[in-house]
Amino acid sequence: NAGVTQTPKFQVLKTGQSMTLQCAQDMNHEYMSWYRQDPGMGLRLIHYSVGAGITDQGEVPNGYNVSRSTTEDFPLRLLSAAPSQTSVYFCASSYSGPGYEQYFGPGTRLTVT
Amino acid sequence: EDQVTQSPEALRLQEGESSSLNCSYTVSGLRGLFWYRQDPGKGPEFLFTLYSAGEEKEKERLKATLTKKESFLHITAPKPEDSATYLCAVQAQGGSEKLVFGKGTKLTVNP
After folding, report:
1. Model confidence over A18-77: pLDDT tens digits?
2. Chain B hits for A92, Cβ within 8 Å
3. What is the model's pLDDT at position B56?
4. pLDDT confidence of residue B49
5. Is A83 helix (H, G, I), strand (E, B) or coil?
């Protein structure tokens, strides 16, 4: 099993550009989530999904969109990048909800100039 | 609003010097408290889940305990490979599908 994979590992965007961060898992997990991690702020939940076709907002959803068309994939879209979105982004998955062991991907380091 | 506060922010230990990390929380009914370990440049890795006051979990040199207001991660005779950032998170009752994380404690164990 590859676990949770994220692409790209690094990305530099200009303000106003859009892009999609990819996340995939091969463990047949129902629950998937996106976090951002900033220095001194800890992990903050952006969006999450409890199953294919179901998504909901987390703590900091503004500026981000998600969709969950399959169990395996949970892409995160930045609509119009802003310098405030410079961060490290982690995708995670678990069997059924965050109360189960969450498996995190290796992260995407995004810089918006 | 659910909150998690971890202390200290950073801790330096000598190899073999036991200590504890603290995680205090305020939540409207605790469904679960979680400890994760994060190595530099990597995603967090699950360690423990605690559900009720008085519960304890152990894994190698780590032992996690839980009270009604806080959790401790005890590290016994640490080794340099225990160096990492330790994250605490809580899940509230009431159907919450979210975790709230603390800012973490960065542990450095010197040989």
Report:
1. 999 999 999 999 999 999 999 888 899 999 999 999 999 999 999 999 999 999 999 999
2. 43
3. 98
4. 96
5. helix
pLDDT at B69: 95
Look-up: residue for tokens 């967090």? Answer: B44
Q: Which residues is B5 bridged to in the sheet?
A: B24
The answer to whether residue B60 neighbours chain A at the CB level (below 8 Å) is no
Q: Residue A50: its chain B contacts at CB < 8 A? A: 97
Cis amide bond preceding B8, omega within 30:
yes
State the count of interchain CB pairs (< 8 A) between A and B: 54
As beta bridge partners, residue B59 has B62
Q: What is the pLDDT of residue B108?
A: 98
In the stretch 6-45 of chain B, residues with CB closer than 8 A to chain A read 31-32, 36, 41-45
Say if the Cβ atoms of A101 and B102 lie within 8 Å: no
Using an 8 Å Cβ cutoff, are B61 and B77 in contact? yes
Residue of A nearest to B4 (CA): A42
pLDDT for residue A97: 87
Question: With contacts defined as CB-CB under 8 Å, which chain A residues touch B100?
Answer: 45, 59
Residue B1's contacts (CB-CB under 8 Å, 6 or more residues apart) are none
Tell me the sheet residues that pair with A45. Answer: A35
Output the pLDDT for position B96.
76
**CA distance, residue B22 to nearest chain A CA (Å):** 15
Each residue of B46-63: pLDDT tens digit?
Answer: 999 999 999 999 999 999
Token duo for residue A62: 């503004």
